[in-house]
Amino acid sequence: MMTDADFGLLDPAWAGTPAAAATSDAAIAQALLDVEAAWVGVLADAGHCPPEAADAVDAAADASLYDLADVARRSAGGGNPLIPLLADLRAELKAAGSAEAAAVVHRGATSQDIVDTALMLVASRAGATIRADLAAAAAGAARLADTHRDTICVARSLTQHALPITFGLRAANWLAGLTAAGRRLDAALAGLPVQWGGAVGTLASLTDSLQAGNDGGAPVPELVTALAERLGLVDPGTPWHTNRMPVTGLGAALADTVAAAGTLAADVLTASRPEIAEVSEPRAPGRGGSSAMPQKQNPVLSVLIRQAALSAPHQAAQLFLAAGLAADERPDGSWHSEWAALRSLLRLAGGASTKLSELATGLQVHPEALAANAALTGDLLLSERITSRLAPLVEGGKSAVQELVTRSLSERRELRPLLRDAVPAGSLSDDDFNALFDPAGYLGQTGTFIDRILADHAAWSATAG
User: Fold this and answer.
1) Closest CA to 189 of 263, 135, 151
2) DSSP of 101-129
3) What is the Cα–Cα distance from 114 to 119, expressed in whole angstroms?
4) Per-residue pLDDT tens listing for the chain (465 residues)
5) What angle do CA 17, 23, 28 make, to 5 degrees?
6) Which of 11, 21, 122, 249 is the most buried (most CB within 10 A)?
7) So which residues are the catalytic ones?
8) First to last CA, the chain
9) Which of 244, 207, 230 is closest to 112 using CA atoms?
């Protein structure tokens, strides 16, 4: 049966992941209804409406009761989905014999209050799954860093062999990015604010109606605080209708998460090429195959993470563009342009983190290939060290050593004999000379850096939950 629902048919980076469910149209509608119901609950708790009204709204605030395709079509009439959904909610309440609840729902609020708060609620719910997957991926990278802290491999600079490092340091650098992204995501999720300002950010209607009705009870600011607590969000103290920093901050954290994932995936894509074969993605039935070439095992997890990494920056840029064009007391179009961009970022970060979790925890490392590839450059891999250490001992100094390196490359001759002939025997013993060509002896602070990154990750992991 045909449907208007977006299942992500052309977005495999996030299709079918927890983030897809958490950001679906049904999830968005449910969040809008949850905010309306929570507000009536706050009013009831404060004595501004009867508890029965809150119970009625709770019962009617079920997205499955409404035709969301029809709501979406009608949203063009008012420029946002809340207006037709609110009309349907009120109609449902009246049909259920709860006219009083229909009258109190949305009291003192404006559409932007509900939409912004609902999107923060969606971000909170989706963010919990993103954070969990990111933490699992980081734990996988930490295990790789520790397991392979002494596994020699070649560092590549501008695609070329550069110096020896260890695969543990490469994994630790992945981990450093994931940990930093995790902290930024935590900060963004912890600060998601409720939006409550009324028509132009003064809460004039709510304040006036409560005063006119002599309702008594909690002051208006305390009602907003109660709403934030009920929804698990933060009370920012003032409305932020045209101050879009909560949205850009969240967007930046999500983009950081995707970027950190993309770095790991980019390295895996390079290293899993058959002619390099240093790592392999974890296998799973039905994944990685080709429709035409049975022998292929495509690194699909990394490919889809890269899809997310290529897509996320444009969505983040849209949020910053919208924030910079937010005008007057209610943005005209820039606010509207945020919605799809923010949802896309949540989906991309969620999809990337889900796939990254499986990739990092199941990545297969092939030490024999790492060693073989490092050996391709031979003694030239230590040319930086050789030049520094042997220049004072060779007639002609650094330029002479560099000339021997160039000769080794151009004539395809082994470097070590050329250098041994150039270094006086009395200046350096054979044992000390040969020790200069041991990659394990030229790793600098590799072990220290791995330990520091692992310790930093452990400190972040301790904040989970």
Assistant:
1) 135
2) HHHHTTTT--HHHHHHHHHHHHHHHHHHH
3) 8
4) 345 567 899 999 999 999 999 999 999 999 999 999 999 999 999 999 999 999 999 999 999 999 999 999 999 999 999 999 999 999 999 999 999 999 999 999 999 999 999 999 999 999 999 999 999 999 999 999 999 999 999 999 999 999 999 999 999 999 999 999 999 999 999 999 999 999 999 999 999 988 876 655 678 999 999 999 999 999 999 999 999 999 999 999 999 999 999 999 999 999 999 999 999 999 887 666 655 555 668 999 999 999 999 999 999 999 999 999 999 999 999 999 999 999 999 999 999 999 999 999 999 999 999 999 999 999 999 999 999 999 999 999 999 999 999 999 899 899 999 999 999 988 999 999 999 999 999 999 999 999 999 999 999 999 975
5) 155
6) 122
7) 290, 330
8) 41
9) 244
Tokens 């809460």, located at residue? 203
The pTM score is 0.94
3-state secondary structure of 165: strand
Q: Identify residue 415 by its one-letter amino acid code.
A: L
